[in-house]
Write a structure and sequence with these properties.
The protein is an alpha/beta fold. Helices cover 41% and strands 7% of the residues. The protein has a four-stranded parallel sheet with strand order 3-2-1-4. Strand 1, helix 4 and strand 2 form a beta-alpha-beta unit. Helix 3 crosses helix 5 and helix 4 packs across helix 5. It is globular.
C-alpha cells in the first residue's frame, strides 16, 4: 500500500524489486484512502484464504521487526568486546516510523551499553517523538519477554534519547542541500553510499553537530540504515515499458530534480491477491 512521494531513480528500482517479488502494489493518494483500501484488502484476503493476513505497519516497525535491531546491538557489543571498535558515546540514526530507534535503545539496555541515541526526524512536523518511541520500546520488550522470560523488562531510558528536528527539509524523501552535501562527502571520502530520504539527512545532523557542539574526542557511531544488499538479480529482465499503460504510468513520468516538489497522481502497479495482473 503506497502513498505519494517525490519521484527518483531509487523509487523506480524499489518498485521493480516489489514487482520481481510478485508483490501486490496498490497506490493511494492520501492516508484516508490508504486506510480504507487496506481494510478492504485485509478482509478480502481473509475471506479468500480462510485466515487473516499478517500486518506489517509502515516502515516495518513491529515488535518482530524491531527484534532484529535489538539483535544488531548484541553484535555491536560483541565487536566492542573483541576490540574491533571503541564503545560509542553517541549514536546517530534516522527516525521515520521509529522502530530502529526503539530497537537500538532496547538493545543498549539489554547489553548494558550506555550511549545517547540521536534520532534524526526525516519527516516534516513533529510526528517523531519520545512517546511513540517509548510505546514501541515497551511493546517490543514485552514481546521478547513473553517469548523468553529470561529477557528482562526494562525501564524506558528517556535520558539516553534525543529526538532531533530541523533536518527534514520539505518532508519525507525531499532532498535537502545539507543532505546532498553529506551524501557527497561520505561517498568521496569513505566510499559509502547514502541516500536522500533517511541516511543523508541523518549524517547531515551529525555534520552539523561536529561543526557546532560535538565534544572533542567523543566517540560517535553513525547507524547506516541504507540497504547494502545488491538486489539487481530480482529486477533482471523487468521493464515498465513492457507493462500495461496503467502499470507504467509512474515509471514513465520524468524524474524530478532533487529540489522540485513532485506528487504521484496515478495508480502505479496492481496485482490481485493471487498475484495475477488486473
Amino acid at each position: 500500500m503506497l502513498l505519494p512521494q517525490p519521484g527518483a531513480d531509487y523509487v523506480r528500482k524499489n518498485l521493480l524489486v516489489l514487482l520481481g517479488c510478485e508483490t501486490g502494489i496498490h497506490y493511494y493518494s492520501n492516508i484516508v484512502s490508504l486506510f480504507l483500501g487496506s481494510l478492504f484488502h485485509y478482509f478480502v484476503s481473509a475471506m479468500g484464504k480462510g485466515r487473516f493476513p499478517e500486518i506489517i505497519w509502515s516502515g516495518g516497525s513491529t515488535p518482530s521487526g524491531i527484534t532484529g535491531i535489538v539483535s544488531a546491538i548484541f553484535e555491536l557489543r560483541e565487536q566492542i568486546d573483541l576490540g574491533l571498535m571503541p564503545k560509542p558515546e553517541r549514536i546517530y540514526v534516522a527516525a521515520g516510523t521509529m522502530g530502529t530507534t526503539a530497537g537500538i535503545l532496547l538493545g543498549l539496555c539489554a547489553t548494558g551499553l550506555e550511549a545517547t541515541v540521536h534520532a534524526v526526524s526525516i519527516l516534516g512536523g513533529k510526528f517523531v517523538d519520545k512517546n511513540k518511541i517509548r510505546c514501541l520500546f515497551v511493546y517490543t520488550n514485552r514481546y521478547l519477554h513473553k517469548n523468553d522470560p529470561r529477557f528482562p523488562l526494562f525501564r524506558f531510558p528517556c535520558d539516553m534519547l534525543e529526538v532531533r528536528y530541523g533536518f527534514a527539509g520539505e518532508g519525507y524523501a525531499y532532498m535537502t542541500p545539507e543532505g546532498k552535501e553529506a551524501i557527497r562527502l561520505v561517498g568521496e571520502h569513505e566510499g559509502v553510499s547514502l541516500e536522500r530520504t533517511y541516511t543523508g539527512k541523518t549524517f547531515a545532523a551529525l555534520m552539523s553537530d561536529a561543526k557546532d557542539n560535538l565534544p572533542r574526542g567523543e566517540v560517535v557511531l553513525f547507524w547506516n540504515t541504507h540497504n547494502g544488499i545488491v538486489l539487481d538479480s530480482l529486477i533482471e529482465g523487468l521493464d515498465y515499458r513492457k507493462q500495461s499503460s496503467r502499470r507504467r504510468a509512474y515509471a514513465l513520468r520524468p524524474l524530478t530534480p532533487p529540489y522540485v516538489r513532485f506528487r504521484i497522481r496515478r495508480f502505479v502497479v496492481s496485482y490481485d491477491l493471487t498475484h495475477n495482473y488486473r
